[in-house]
Amino acid sequence: MTPLLSVQGVTKRYGAHIGCADVSFDLYPGEVMGIVGESGSGKSTLLNCMAGHMAPDAGKVVFDTRTDGPRDTLTMSEPERRMLGRTDWAFVHQHARDGLRMGVSAGGNVGERLMAVGARHYGDIRARATDWLERVEIAPGRIDDRPTTFSGGMQQRLQIARNLVTGPRLVFMDEPTGGLDVSVQARLLDLLRGLVRDMGLSAIIVTHDLAVVRLLADRLMVMKSGHVVEAGLTDRVLDDPQHAYTQLLVSSVLQV
Amino acid sequence: MIDLQNVSKTFTLHNQGGATIRVMDGATLSVAQGECVALTGASGAGKSTLMRMIYGNYMAQGGAIRVGGVDLVQAEPREIIRIRREVLGYVSQFLRVVPRVPTLDVVAEPLRAVGVPRDEAQDRARALLSQLNIPERLWSLSPTTFSGGEQQRVNIARGFAHAYPAMLLDEPTASLDAANREVVLGLIAEAKARGAAIVGIFHDEAARDRVCDREIDVSRFSPARAA
Amino acid sequence: MTDQAYNFAYLDEQTKRMIRRAILKGLAIPGYQVPFASREMPMPYGWGTGGVQVSAAVLTPDDRFKVIDQGADDTTNAVSIRSFFERTAGVATTTVTTEATVIQTRHRIPEVPLAEGQILVYQVPIPEPLRFLEPRESETRKMHSLEEYGLMHVKLYEDIARHGHIATSYAYPVKVEGRYVMDPSPIPKFDNPKLADCPAIQLFGAGREQRIYALPPYTQVVSLDFEDHPFEASRADHPCGLCGAVDSYLDEVITDDAGGRMFVCSDTDYCETRQAAGHRGKDAA
C-alpha cells in the first residue's frame, strides 16, 4: 500500500535554534496520528512544514495525489500546493478565528471551499452547507448568522465543517480542542472520531493533551527539543513508554 | 490462533535512576481455535502484563507474539490496529469511552469499525444489552455515569459485539451478580463454539473451571525462577 | 488660453511616460492592476486624482475632452476637472458624448454607445474587488496571480443569503477575458453590459491606491453570478420625466418638501440630446 503522506527527513532551523530535526514517518489512508510534546518541542513547526505553511530547510513531504500519485509537495508549484490546500488537505486551527472568516455567515464560510473549486449553483452550495452544519451539530437555522455570534465550541465545529465540505483526504489539526471547556471538548472529540471513521480520513493532530490523542489517534509521535523521541501505537506509547521524556510526560498527567 | 514464542519483557524506569526491571522471560504458549486458556499465578506474577503484550499495548523486548498470523512484536502500528479491529478482541476491566456517546453506539462501534451497516450493528448491540440486563432506558445515555457493574456489562457487550476469531478477557465475571455471570459464561461458551481462541484471567475459580480448557501459570515465565 | 506656467496637461513628460507605460501594460493584460507612482495632484484624493493622471497621460492637443460625474457634465467635480485641463492643456472640451475623444467619468458609462477612437477614463476609489473580504494586499495579489476567485462568489453568496438576491448594485465584479476579476469602479450594474465588447478603450485610474488597469477595445467582460441567480442589469421602473427615455439609468430628484419627486436620466447629454430632438417626458416643462 502507498502511504498517503510520507515525511522524509524534515528539518527546520530558526538560526542556531532547531525547530524540528530530521523527522520521518509514513501515514497510511485512514490513519490518525497524534504528535505530542511540550510547548516549544517543535510539534507546531513540524505541522506547519507539512501543511505547506512554512518551508523546511531540508526534507520531503510526499503526498499521494489523486491524479499523479506520490509528489513532493515542497517542490510543487505554489498554485498546485494551494489547490491541494483547498481540496485534498484541510487545516483546523486552534483558534477558530484563524480558520474562519468572521465577517461572513456560517453558510458562506462552509460554502467558500466549494466556490473555490468552482461550485456556481447557489442552491446546491446552500444545501451542502446546511447538510454540513447538521453534521457538526449546528442548527441549520443559524446558517445566515456570523461566527461572531457563535460560542467557542460552535466556532470550532463550524471550522471543521468548512474544512471537510470538499471531502479532503488529509486533515491537519493544531490543538483542535485547546481553549474549549471539557464538556465541549468531549463533544468535539466524538464528532471528529465519527467523521474520521465515516469519511475514512487520515489526520495528523498536534496537541499537548494526552487524553485527546488516546481517544482520537491510532499512532503517536512524542517530540522533545525538535526531535522525535518515541513513536508507535498510541496506547503502547502511553501505557508502556520507553523513552525517559515520554515516561515523564505520561506520569505528569493528573489523574481524575 | 494465538501463539507466543520466547517472549520477554523489561521495564526501564528512566526517571527513577534508570532502574531496569526484568519481569518476563521465555514466555511461550499457544491457543488453538475454539480453545480457552486461563492465565493463573499470584498477584504480580505478570498475568496482566502478558495480556497487554498480546494486545500490543506493552512492548515485548524479545520473542514473537503471533495473532492471526501476524507477529505483533514486529508489526507496524497500522497492522496492529487492523488485527485489533478484525481479529483480536479485548474485554478489559475498565470501560474507556468518549464521554457523551450513547451506550448503544458504544456497543455497536466495533461492528461499525468493520463496516457493518448502522442498523444491523445497533440490532446486535440491542440484543447484547438486553441479554446482559442493561435496562433499555439507559441505552441512549453515556455509560460514563453508570455504576461499576453496569459499566462492566457494557464493556462485555462491546467486547462480544463483533465475532473476533481471538479474544482476551480480563476478569470478565468480576463484580457481576449470579444471573449476569451466567450470561457472560454463556457468551464465552458461544465464542468458543464458533471457534474463537480465548486467553483469559479469571479469579472466579468456578467460572474458570467451567469455560477454560487449560491453565497456564505465568509465574513459570518469571525471570526470578529462570535465574 | 493655456497657462504657460504649466507643462502640457499639468504633468511633466517623464511622469506621463511612466503612466503611459502602466497604461500599455494594463492594456496588454486586461483587468490586471498595474502599480504606478501616483503623483500629488492639485485636488484631494477621492476627487478623481487617478482619473486625472490617466487623462493627462493620454490627452493630445487635438483631443476633445468631456468629463462626467454620475453622468452629469455640470456637477462641481466635472466642471472643475474640465476647466483644469482647459487651463493646463488647452484642449477643446465638449459635453456631447459622440464628439468627445477622451471622456473622464465617475460612476457612469454614457448611454450613447462609444465608438472606436474614443477613450473612457474611469475614476476608481478602490481598485481591488477582493478588498472587503481579504484585507491583506499580499494575499489578494496572490489570489489574482493564482486565479483563486472563490472568495468573490462568497460575497455574492452573502448577498443572496441576506437579501434573497444579489444585492450588489454598483461596483459589481466582472471577469475579464476569463482571467482577471476586476472592479469596474462604482458604476451601477446597469452599466455592466456596456463594459463588454466595447469599441472604445477603457482605462481605470486609482490615485490613492496607485493602480491603473484597462480594457482594450472589444474585450470580453462577464459579470459574476450563480447559475440559479444569473446576473441581471438593473432596469428603471419609470421613463425619464424630462425626455421620456425608457432605456436609460435614472436619478431620483426630490422636487418639493411635500415628497414630490421625479426620475430623470443621469446622463445629462443623453437627456438633452433627446429633448432637442423633440422627445418629452411627463414632467417636462
From TrEMBL, chain A:
UniProt KW keywords: ATP-binding, Nucleotide-binding
GO biological process terms, semicolon-separated: organic phosphonate catabolic process
Name this protein carries in UniProt: Putative phosphonate transport system ATP-binding protein
Residue ranges of domain ABC transporter in the record: 5-250
SMART domains hit by this protein: AAA
GO molecular function, one term: ATP hydrolysis activity
UniProt cross-references to PANTHER family, sorted A to Z: PHOSPHONATES UTILIZATION ATP-BINDING PROTEIN PHNK-RELATED
Any Pfam family the entry gives: ABC_tran
Protein's organism: Lutimaribacter pacificus
From TrEMBL, chain B:
Annotated GO MF terms: ATP binding; ATP hydrolysis activity
Record bears the keyword Transferase: no
Pfam families in UniProt: ABC_tran (PF00005)
Annotated ranges, domain ABC transporter: 2-226
InterPro entries xref list: AAA+_ATPase, ABC_transporter-like_ATP-bd, ABC_transporter-like_CS, CP_lyase_PhnL, P-loop_NTPase
Keywords, in A-Z order: ATP-binding, Nucleotide-binding
Similarity field: Belongs to the ABC transporter superfamily.
Listed name of the protein: Alpha-D-ribose 1-methylphosphonate 5-triphosphate synthase subunit PhnL
Lineage summary: Bacteria, Pseudomonadati, Pseudomonadota, Alphaproteobacteria, Rhodobacterales
Automatic annotation (TrEMBL), chain C:
Matching InterPro entries: PhnJ
GO molecular function, one term: alpha-D-ribose 1-methylphosphonate 5-phosphate C-P-lyase activity
GO biological process: organic phosphonate catabolic process
Pfam families: PhnJ
Entry EC number(s): 4.7.1.1
Transmembrane segments annotated in the record for this chain: none
Signal sequence coordinates: none
Catalytic activity: alpha-D-ribose 1-methylphosphonate 5-phosphate + AH2 + S-adenosyl-L-methionine = alpha-D-ribose 1,2-cyclic phosphate 5-phosphate + methane + 5'-deoxyadenosine + L-methionine + A + H(+)
Keywords noted in UniProt: 4Fe-4S, Iron, Iron-sulfur, Lyase, Metal-binding, S-adenosyl-L-methionine
Function summary: Catalyzes the breakage of the C-P bond in alpha-D-ribose 1-methylphosphonate 5-phosphate (PRPn) forming alpha-D-ribose.
Entry similarity comment: Belongs to the PhnJ family.
The protein, known as: Alpha-D-ribose 1-methylphosphonate 5-phosphate C-P lyase
